[in-house]
Design goal:
Distance between the termini: 8 Å
Subunit structure: Homodimer.
Helix content: 25-40%
Bound molecules: guanosine-5'-monophosphate
Radius of gyration: 16 Å
Number of domains: 1
Protein name: Xanthine phosphoribosyltransferase
CATH architecture: 3-Layer(aba) Sandwich
Oligomer: single chain
GO molecular function: glycosyltransferase activity
Binding site for 5-phospho-alpha-D-ribose 1-diphosphate: 128-132
Number of strands: 10
Subcellular location: Cytoplasm
Order of helices and strands: HEEHHEHEEEEHEHEE
Structural class: alpha/beta
CATH class: Alpha Beta
Number of helices: 6
Length: 192
Amino acid sequence: MKALKHKILEEGNVLSESVLKVDSFLNHQIDPVLMQQIGQEFAQRFKDAGITKVLTLESSGIAPSVMTALELGVKTVFARKRKSLTLIDGLYSAEVYSFTKKESNEISVSEQYISKEDNVLVIDDFLANGQAALGLTDIVEQSGATLVGIGIVIEKGFQTGRALLEERGIRVESLAIIDSLADGKVTFKEEL
Ligand code: 5GP
């Protein structure tokens, strides 16, 4: 997706050979115009899949998921990372090891919001080693719903996430695939 790749080149900060910081439009401040375009692009790619729900993980997945769900005319649910006082019983839960925080979190979704009749699209901001996506996949499996695919805003193609998901037969659609972050520079897999 051209507009996204331009934004990454203009505003992304390469923190190391494996971490890209995009706080100015995705992970802290949010650019709603770009998010709308991202939602339109995911909706276009999955338009024939009969999606009934979009599932993501708080907090950075919420903006692209809301815009995608709006385009598809369905609701979005975000898995919570912290135990909530009001979210106790009737939960689907999974353990997720965080690439950026180097710690494990239990993520959970109320059974009320995903059921076995749902066709679920999972959305996340980044794909690195696939742990967040696998945790969300696990939650979809527990609910008995059908996983239609996974939409990723920024994939780091040099990490293992895609292989892990594809070997499970999961469709992965990424809007920007980064080939390398070497020498402080972002290189994409395909041309702009
Ligand atoms: P994974 O679970 O695929 O290993 O990592 C994906 C999760 O880690 C995403 O939800 C995202 O929050 C975070 N993440 C992984 N790599 C990066 C990165 O390079 N930059 C940022 N900002 N977040 C990342």
